[in-house]
């Protein structure tokens, strides 16, 4: 990425403002010594703004950047001296959003240890598989997961919240030096169809990744930001990285509750919110506070935006919505701003600076605008492969996302869905997202999902699952007639099933394997 663009963007976002020469020198030295790892980002923030609030938890705990770094260093020293954790080991982190999660991840990177961010929605059996496949040396977990970890091997040390606090309080004095190897962050894929895979995240090598995001999403130094997206997910972790780089004040709640979130956004005077799309839906289901929170940015990612959600949200909270399309493997591919979402509410936007995006056919040739192709992406933060040794297909430095999409004449990207989610019914290709977006526009429908199920005549048929707003009813044949009016006959769901809610994982993605259980 070219230097003038980096400097211009950092200046525009307030990161190059003058400061104490001593603190600026200490800040730059922290980055030079520790790099752009999470440990380096926290160190530079503590060097420049030691007394600034770094984290505010829902229970009122407030830590400055100096305090947060001190606690992370204490934990690192205790893990090394008391538990024998050393560079190259892997520790599991099974925590919701709170300061202890951040301290644990930073402590790992200070030691050159890989931190495996464990999805809080995993079952006990999945957790056991992850512990074995990732060869965990230690598991740090919140108290609420005490029963879930009982089945893990007895030889795997476990730290609950009390034990973690004892490590911090009882740390012996000593120095920490940059480890011989960088500790990697291992993010588990969403696991909507089975046990998730571990994806190794690269450590940024400079300002490029940060600039790619904040150029398109107008976040500024020292903003106050609520991270509602789970930090164990790629999007939540990316939000944490951005916030530390910006020396932001981070507001965290362990669980998402729409009313509590709105109250915190107002009480803490938050400038920005990082969330997943289903959280936006929930926020619209409760009365907005008066006055509205002073939000300038609501940045969402993690799953597709349902049709009509973007304009509805902006009609209530203003044109502050930014939708990032990406994945654990490619980090980001494109970003849609408020103007894009007003123009085309389901668009994934355009690639940010420094990102290449191409739509290719099965032979690797570019497809024309309007035609569906496989989405390939190239940027500075492509993942380094799965911990199992497997990888994704690449072409000319671009990584296969596994998604299908198309570009319109204005260069806006539209994602039709996963390649393996495409339904072939009677020889016709149907993308579930197209039908889902249409069904979501029915006023009675709260949320909708469409899957393909085996059919003896057509190979597959469409099955629609609808969760209605309280007190609403719909007739299945009326639903089919509605779809028939707007789409081709092969897009009409043969089955219409009403459910109380759609099963989702912690990042808001619908668990299609749970829906298939309706068919045994």
UniProtKB/TrEMBL annotation:
<keyword id="KW-0436">Ligase</keyword>
<dbReference type="Pfam" id="PF13193">
    <property type="entry name" value="AMP-binding_C"/>
</dbReference>
<dbReference type="InterPro" id="IPR000873">
    <property type="entry name" value="AMP-dep_synth/lig_dom"/>
</dbReference>
<dbReference type="InterPro" id="IPR045851">
    <property type="entry name" value="AMP-bd_C_sf"/>
</dbReference>
<dbReference type="InterPro" id="IPR025110">
    <property type="entry name" value="AMP-bd_C"/>
</dbReference>
<dbReference type="InterPro" id="IPR020845">
    <property type="entry name" value="AMP-binding_CS"/>
</dbReference>
<protein>
    <submittedName>
        <fullName>AMP-binding protein</fullName>
    </submittedName>
</protein>
<comment type="similarity">
    <text>Belongs to the ATP-dependent AMP-binding enzyme family.</text>
</comment>
<feature type="domain" description="AMP-binding enzyme C-terminal">
    <location>
        <begin position="434"/>
        <end position="509"/>
    </location>
</feature>
<feature type="domain" description="AMP-dependent synthetase/ligase">
    <location>
        <begin position="43"/>
        <end position="386"/>
    </location>
</feature>
<dbReference type="Pfam" id="PF00501">
    <property type="entry name" value="AMP-binding"/>
</dbReference>
<dbReference type="InterPro" id="IPR042099">
    <property type="entry name" value="ANL_N_sf"/>
</dbReference>
């Amino acid at each position: 990425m070219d230097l003038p663009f980096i400097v211009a963007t950092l200046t525009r976002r307030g990161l190059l403002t003058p400061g104490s020469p001593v603190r600026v020198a200490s800040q730059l030295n922290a980055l030079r010594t520790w790099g752009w790892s999470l440990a380096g980002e926290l160190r530079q923030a503590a060097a420049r703004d030691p007394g600034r609030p770094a984290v505010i938890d829902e229970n009122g705990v407030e830590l400055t950047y100096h305090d947060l770094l001190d606690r992370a260093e204490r934990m690192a020293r205790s893990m090394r001296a008391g538990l024998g954790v050393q560079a190259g080991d892997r520790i599991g982190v099974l925590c919701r959003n709170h300061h202890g999660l951040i301290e644990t991840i930073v402590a790992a990177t200070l030691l050159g240890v890989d931190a495996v961010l464990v999805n809080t929605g995993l079952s006990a059996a999945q957790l056991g598989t992850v512990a074995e496949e990732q060869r965990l040396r230690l598991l740090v977990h919140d108290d609420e997961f005490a029963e879930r970890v009982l089945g893990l091997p007895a030889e795997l040390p476990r730290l609950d919240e009390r034990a973690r606090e004892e490590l911090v309080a009882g740390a012996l004095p000593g120095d920490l030096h940059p480890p011989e190897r960088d500790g990697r962050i291992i993010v588990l894929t969403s696991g909507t169809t089975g046990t998730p895979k571990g994806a190794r995240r690269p450590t940024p090598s400079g300002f490029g990744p940060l600039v790619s995001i904040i150029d398109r999403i107008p976040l500024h130094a020292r903003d106050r930001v609520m991270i509602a997206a789970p930090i164990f997910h790629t999007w939540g972790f990316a939000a944490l990285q951005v916030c530390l780089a910006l020396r932001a004040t981070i507001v965290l709640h362990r669980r998402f509750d729409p009313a509590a979130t709105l109250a915190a956004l107002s009480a803490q005077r938050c400038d920005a919110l990082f969330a997943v799309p289903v959280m936006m839906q929930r926020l619209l289901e409760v009365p907005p506070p008066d006055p509205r929170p002073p939000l300038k940015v609501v940045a969402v990612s993690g799953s597709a935006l349902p049709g009509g959600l973007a304009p509805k949200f902006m009609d209530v909270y203003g044109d502050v919505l930014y939708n990032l399309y990406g994945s654990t493997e490619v980090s980001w591919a494109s970003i849609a701003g408020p103007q894009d979402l007003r123009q085309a509410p389901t668009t994934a936007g355009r690639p940010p600076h420094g990102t290449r995006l191409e739509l290719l056919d099965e032979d690797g040739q570019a497809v024309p605008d309007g035609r569906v192709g496989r989405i390939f992406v190239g940027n500075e933060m492509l993942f380094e492969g799965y911990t199992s040794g497997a990888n994704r297909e690449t072409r000319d430095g671009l990584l296969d996302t596994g998604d299908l999409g198309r570009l319109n004449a204005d260069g806006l990207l539209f994602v039709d869905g996963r390649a393996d989610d495409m339904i072939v019914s009677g020889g016709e290709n149907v993308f579930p997202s197209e039908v889902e977006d249409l069904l979501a526009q029915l006023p009675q429908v709260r949320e909708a999902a469409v899957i393909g199920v085996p059919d003896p005549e057509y190979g597959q048929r469409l099955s629609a699952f609808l969760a209605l707003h309280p007190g609403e009813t719909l007739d299945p044949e009326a639903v089919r007639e509605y779809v028939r009016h707007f789409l081709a006959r092969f897009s009409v769901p043969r089955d219409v099933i009403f459910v109380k809610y759609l099963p989702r994982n912690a990042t808001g993605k619908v668990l299609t394997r749970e829906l298939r259980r309706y068919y045994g």
